[in-house]
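Lab meeting, item 3. Inverse folding demo.
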């Protein structure tokens, strides 16, 4: 089934942290403070989707953000319209990787396993997510996210 969400926030760049997330982060020898912050923001967006907090999800996303999935590119406005009918019920994150792009931005990549309901249809999915987060005016915002379905 085709997912109609462009951010997982996965995508954008999105309930308690799952054991799989804690395990993945703990397995890494030393974690860059920026990586910790960006991973936390990514989880915050997923948790907002899980709680139905669309305002919180939107507040973590830059107005000029670009999201890409199998349906192509989407703007923040398009993603926000789609998540109205999207509810995440569970997720786990694993294999977190991080690249610091500058002193104010970084890219996080991970695999997500998720379940929920999208536009009236229950789903389970696995995807690879890459998100870029940028500090703007003292606030971390997701500026880009790509989601690739996987098995």
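The presenter then showed the designed sequence:
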């Amino acid at each position: 089934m085709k997912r109609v969400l462009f951010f997982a926030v996965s995508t954008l760049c999105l309930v308690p942290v799952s054991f799989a997330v804690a395990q993945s982060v703990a397995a890494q020898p030393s974690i860059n403070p920026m990586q910790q912050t960006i991973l936390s923001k990514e989880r915050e967006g997923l948790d907002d989707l899980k709680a139905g907090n669309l305002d919180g999800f939107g507040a973590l996303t830059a107005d000029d953000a670009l999201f890409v999935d199998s349906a192509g590119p989407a703007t923040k406005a398009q993603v926000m319209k789609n998540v109205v009918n999207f509810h995440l019920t569970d997720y786990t994150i694993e294999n977190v990787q991080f690249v610091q792009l500058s002193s104010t931005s970084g890219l996080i990549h991970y695999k997500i396993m998720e379940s929920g309901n999208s536009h009236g249809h229950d789903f389970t999915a696995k995807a690879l997510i890459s998100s870029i987060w940028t500090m703007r005016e003292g606030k971390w915002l997701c500026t880009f996210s790509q989601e690739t379905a996987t098995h």
